[in-house]
Amino acid sequence: MDSTAIRSTGMKIIQAVGLVLFLAGMLAFTLIPFVGSYELDSEMVTAQTKESHREKMLEILEPMYGKNYSSNFSFLSDFNTHFDDYNDEFKSNQKWDEVIWDDYRFPLAKAALNSPVKDSPWLCLSLSIGLIVIGGLFYNLPKHQDEPAGIKHNGIYHSAMKNRGWLGILTGSYLILFYIILYWFPAYLVNLVSMVDPLSEILSGNPASQWFLYGLIYTLAILVMGIRMFRKYRGNKYQQLRTASVMFFQTAFAFLIPEILVLLNQPYYDFKNIWPLDYDFFYDYQISTFLSSGGMGLFMLIWGILLIIIAVPTFTYFYGKRWYCSWVCGCGGLAETAGDPYRQLSDKSLKSWKIERYLVHSVLVLAVVMTALTIANYFSSFSLLGNITNQLHSFYGFAIGSAFAGVVGTGFYPFMGNRVWCRFGCPLAAYLGIVQRFKSRFRITTNGGQCISCGNCSTYCEMGIDVRWYAQRGQNIVRASCVGCGVCSAVCPRGVLKLENGPEEGRINDLPIIIGNDSIKLNA
Amino acid sequence: MSTSKHVVIIGNGISGITCARHLRKLDDQVQITVISGESEYFFSRTALMYIYMGHMKFEHTQPYENWFWEKNRIELKHAWVKTVNFTSKSLHFGSGEQMNYDELVIATGSKPNKFGWPGQDLKGVQGLYSKQDLELMEETTKSGVEHAVIVGGGLIGIEMAEMLAYRKISVTFLVRETGFWRNILPKEESELVGRHIREHHFELKLETELDEIIGDKSGKVIAVKTKSGEEIPCQFVGLTAGVSPNVDFLKGSGLEIGRGVKIDSFFRTNIDHVYSIGDCAEFKEAPAEDRKNIEQVWYTGRIHGEILAHNLIKKPVPYRPGVWFNSAKFLDIEYQTYGQVPADWDRDQVKNFYWEHSGGKVAFRLLMHSDESILGVNVFGLRMRHEFFDRAIREKWSGEEVINKLEKANFDPEFFAPYYKVIKEKFAADFDKNISKVKLSWIQQLLGARV
């Protein structure tokens, strides 16, 4: 064997090892929630419940004290029996004030847990998430090592993972299940959360919540798959820079800074999250937090408002919505890294474009109405609508915040592409899109008559834009949904597409003329 | 003028489909039928390779959704035309059906060249032009092919090599010329592509001609023999020495045929109400000094279709080609050309400027007339603006003016290396001209790729 062959075999071995480590880590991560036993005592209940509920909760859960439960299923099922017995009685008598609405399952399960995971969190973290990360790096780093820089889309439609094959279906189902448990049944994840407790203590001084666990996984997914992007797009500076940018913003702004703020006794705040994506920004408890946290809180409130009213229109005017969606945003960050293998699965039909416009703008309207009512209610000291805004918040949080953005938004990557949420649901994307469509210098320029209608641009557009439709008629692409990822330009074999900021004049050419025909001037 | 005449177009490639679409744009009444035996719907032939390599599915190569045709009242007929009766103005299909026309457009495209090599019809020997060719290639190379020989170093040849590499089939190129695509590309560009071909581990045999293709008893290819007597064992042979008009079914029908369907500059054949466009047509006189009688690229096919549609509805105009342009991709290296850059030129009449990046994958050539007005450019590994060069060539800018404004021609994505900067510097040095310096923005300097 010559040296390149040895090298190439070496790379394949490293990749195979990576795959094994990744799968071992996934297996550990999946099994960890089922480890250990649960034993509740009255001290835990005292520590974990609100003062107003404490006495009742101590009474309700009394039969469980000292009992050893061998699994989370038996513990939570017993908990539910006792708790529901209590609540159901008041509910049937319509004594709503007596009903305990708070969900104590997660904190109590976490307190009651006895497991090796809790005893050796660092070891378990290394064997699960650690192996996943190392395996992912081993698998991704040697990629395309021996190939010249270029487009690496070979075999995508022959892949069981990337073309809705069995692996894609399995991955999607796993993600959907994970999101459902995370959002609505986090008590089943207490082992995993305990596992990251020590890390959380270091960063914020507090034990972890399921959101810390989620934030950690999310950030690592962006980092590992971001490195994959560096390999895949070697030689394409635009792709590399924007990938580095989302990796940075996720790690620093979304993950580390908010935790450190908490350590410094400041409100938890992600400085790059913008209403209405950050839909609870104007909720009364948020406003109270900002107003009661001194100078820093006030700064956060003003900063958040400035982002909405100044940064979004200004930056979008100069650079298009890409400045946020594919360079800064966390949802975009995950889509552009972990979601990249699935970008080709977005629906390009005219019908889906119609659905998209109805849906995404409806969510925007809903978010605006909800927020307006919330603010009005806040300033009228809740005399206007009372607790109705709370109902609205829980509906929005459930339907949009959790089900749409999380379960569908990420769980559906392997089925409908990596930008389902951004395209059909994100109210901020809708707002940015309106600015981009009507008042911006950004466009994708079509290079004269060079298009050969091959379809690579449309196929790899994650937002489902039929880029070719415009390119083949020599028309600039000016679309509200375009997040400016630049992949259409990258995959074009004829150098037809260029993302540009330029004068507004001539940006939208509805009746383009294709260059190269001197016999007649015609509109495509 | 509105009309309800029936225009029948044989062939649903870019020429025929463009013609059909523009007919409908120009006239609401005209009855339009497009016939194709190859595929039910229009697809982009240039994308066939991507289907093979798993970049796309066949449906992705169809530029219009299936409802488009009915909505625009363009009738599609999925059948092969067997014969045409020009006296009764009728088409006869393989199935025995027939169809009448008022105006007939022949846009049947091409077929791969076969020059009568012994063994050229063996199993495992094929060209790549049609959907059927792709299906055959997928079938043939599914298993049992370890080595392939590609005869002819052109654009389809290099696509075929890239496709075969995806299936881990090694490839030997037999190229008659002294360099890859040397009949079109100047020496340096040809060498640049040659190096890149070898970087992809393909074997490139220059100045080598095919003598015969050898088969086994079952009629399957087992080797090729070159004119120098070398025998290369292989299980697949790609014939990519160009294409020629697909007009066999029209021979002897009364239609004047040379290599293709003979047409004048209005796309008219020798028979009234019969026209021909695209790469099956052969102009009796070359449309322009720098044009061939048969035009075989995507863009010319499209432009033919646009003009013929106009001519069938409005006052006919002759075909006047604009400034020549073309593009291709050689594995990972993109190529664009504007204006005239012949493979070789007379040093007394043409001034030459060539810049190549030290990495050997990016290059820029500018040819000028002796008065230094621009003749054309070749661009490799770089993207440049069609509009810029269309104007520069049309308005006969001097080379100096072109180079002075070169940053405006740049079409590379943001943050890519500013090659135009060093091209300007080299031009200034080579021609002793005062060329304006490029000032890069601070963000480009900070984050952008370096030359």
From TrEMBL, chain A:
<dbReference type="GO" id="GO:0005886">
    <property type="term" value="C:plasma membrane"/>
</dbReference>
<feature type="transmembrane region" description="Helical">
    <location>
        <begin position="285"/>
        <end position="312"/>
    </location>
</feature>
<feature type="transmembrane region" description="Helical">
    <location>
        <begin position="12"/>
        <end position="35"/>
    </location>
</feature>
<keyword id="KW-0411">Iron-sulfur</keyword>
<dbReference type="InterPro" id="IPR051684">
    <property type="entry name" value="Electron_Trans/Redox"/>
</dbReference>
<dbReference type="Pfam" id="PF13187">
    <property type="entry name" value="Fer4_9"/>
</dbReference>
<feature type="transmembrane region" description="Helical">
    <location>
        <begin position="243"/>
        <end position="265"/>
    </location>
</feature>
<feature type="transmembrane region" description="Helical">
    <location>
        <begin position="120"/>
        <end position="141"/>
    </location>
</feature>
<keyword id="KW-0812">Transmembrane</keyword>
<keyword id="KW-0004">4Fe-4S</keyword>
<keyword id="KW-0472">Membrane</keyword>
<dbReference type="InterPro" id="IPR017896">
    <property type="entry name" value="4Fe4S_Fe-S-bd"/>
</dbReference>
<dbReference type="InterPro" id="IPR017900">
    <property type="entry name" value="4Fe4S_Fe_S_CS"/>
</dbReference>
<feature type="domain" description="4Fe-4S ferredoxin-type">
    <location>
        <begin position="442"/>
        <end position="470"/>
    </location>
</feature>
<feature type="transmembrane region" description="Helical">
    <location>
        <begin position="395"/>
        <end position="415"/>
    </location>
</feature>
<feature type="transmembrane region" description="Helical">
    <location>
        <begin position="358"/>
        <end position="380"/>
    </location>
</feature>
<keyword id="KW-1133">Transmembrane helix</keyword>
<feature type="transmembrane region" description="Helical">
    <location>
        <begin position="211"/>
        <end position="231"/>
    </location>
</feature>
<keyword id="KW-0408">Iron</keyword>
<feature type="transmembrane region" description="Helical">
    <location>
        <begin position="166"/>
        <end position="191"/>
    </location>
</feature>
<keyword id="KW-0813">Transport</keyword>
<keyword id="KW-0479">Metal-binding</keyword>
UniProtKB/TrEMBL annotation, chain B:
<dbReference type="GO" id="GO:0016491">
    <property type="term" value="F:oxidoreductase activity"/>
</dbReference>
<protein>
    <submittedName>
        <fullName>Pyridine nucleotide-disulphide oxidoreductase</fullName>
    </submittedName>
</protein>
<dbReference type="InterPro" id="IPR050260">
    <property type="entry name" value="FAD-bd_OxRdtase"/>
</dbReference>
<comment type="similarity">
    <text>Belongs to the FAD-dependent oxidoreductase family.</text>
</comment>
<feature type="domain" description="FAD/NAD(P)-binding">
    <location>
        <begin position="6"/>
        <end position="291"/>
    </location>
</feature>
<dbReference type="InterPro" id="IPR036188">
    <property type="entry name" value="FAD/NAD-bd_sf"/>
</dbReference>
<keyword id="KW-0285">Flavoprotein</keyword>
<dbReference type="Pfam" id="PF07992">
    <property type="entry name" value="Pyr_redox_2"/>
</dbReference>
<keyword id="KW-0274">FAD</keyword>
<dbReference type="InterPro" id="IPR023753">
    <property type="entry name" value="FAD/NAD-binding_dom"/>
</dbReference>
